[in-house]
Design brief:
The complex is a heterodimer of chains A (116) and B (112). Chain A is mainly β. Helix content of chain A is 0%, strand content 53%. Chain A has no helices and eleven strands. In chain A, the strands form two sheets. In chain A, strands 2, 4, 5, 9, 10 and 11 form a six-stranded mixed β-sheet that branches. A five-stranded antiparallel β-sheet of chain A has the order 1-3-8-7-6, with no helix packed on it. Chain B is mainly β. Chain B contains no helices and eleven strands. The chains are: A mainly beta (116), B mainly beta (112). Chains A and B meet through β5, β9 and β10 of A and β4, β5, β9 and β10 of B.
Chain lengths: 116, 112
């Protein structure tokens, strides 16, 4: 079975500081991994995805994530936080590895607070 | 191009009442999904439809039924609502090859 663990339900950073949101996964097959962002009272929007190509994946709004197989991690980073980055972030893994049924297993989410 | 739309946006039900949540997508996607979101638990898959005419259970299907009415529409029905079904419900769709799910804005359901 596949699972996702996001370390830290709340992360607080100052504006301009590095953002690091941690995600570890468990998968018996090569995973496909995703980061989604959810702004208050909205649906989820895809930030970036890893689908077995380059291990460093760049997404929208200056975010990127690195797939590290040896560490079973897919941490999300952004060099400089902006106030508009305040949101909830979800890491997800495709529930059937490389087969695309589209079903996703989500982590519990991390709320990012950005302080002025 | 509206993407994924959901109705209603908000709903309050009494225990035992029934209702249907509607979802439609205009992106010609093959696959559609229903998730529920609860605090501290992320999103959990209720049901999905890999293609028109097929539906399958997800992680938390009990108490729900679905209908894939056509390629565009995928509805979620609560036959007898329970307080444990208080949640935010999201519909999503996926072309089936691109691994990217597009989400609707959600339906906030409260069962009293």
């Amino acid at each position: 079975a596949q699972s996702v663990t996001q370390l830290g339900s709340h992360v607080s950073v100052s504006e301009g500081a590095l953002v690091l949101l941690r995600c570890n996964y468990s998968s018996s097959v090569p995973p496909y991994l995703f980061w989604y962002v959810q702004y208050p009272n909205q649906g989820l929007q895809l930030l970036l995805k890893y689908t077995s190509a380059a291990t460093l994946v760049k997404g929208i709004n200056g975010f990127e994530a690195e797939f590290k197989k040896s560490e079973t991690s897919f941490h999300l980073t952004k060099p400089s936080a902006h106030m508009s980055d305040a949101a909830e972030y979800f890491c997800a893994v495709s529930s059937e590895g490389s087969s695309n049924t589209g079903k996703l297993i989500f982590g519990q989410g991390t709320t990012l607070q950005v302080k002025p | 191009n509206a993407g994924v739309t959901q109705t209603p946006k908000f709903q309050v039900l009494k225990t035992g009442q029934s209702m249907t949540l509607q979802c439609a997508q205009d992106m010609n996607h093959n696959s559609m999904y229903w998730y529920r979101q609860d605090p501290g638990m992320g999103l959990r898959l209720i049901y999905y439809s890999a293609s028109e005419g097929t539906t399958d259970k997800g992680e938390v299907p009990n108490g729900y039924n679905v209908s894939r009415l056509n390629k565009r529409e995928f509805s979620l029905r609560l036959e007898s609502a329970a307080p444990s079904q208080t949640s935010v419900y999201f519909c999503a769709s996926n072309l089936g090859t691109a691994f990217t799910e597009y989400f609707g804005p959600g339906t906030r359901l409260t069962v009293t």
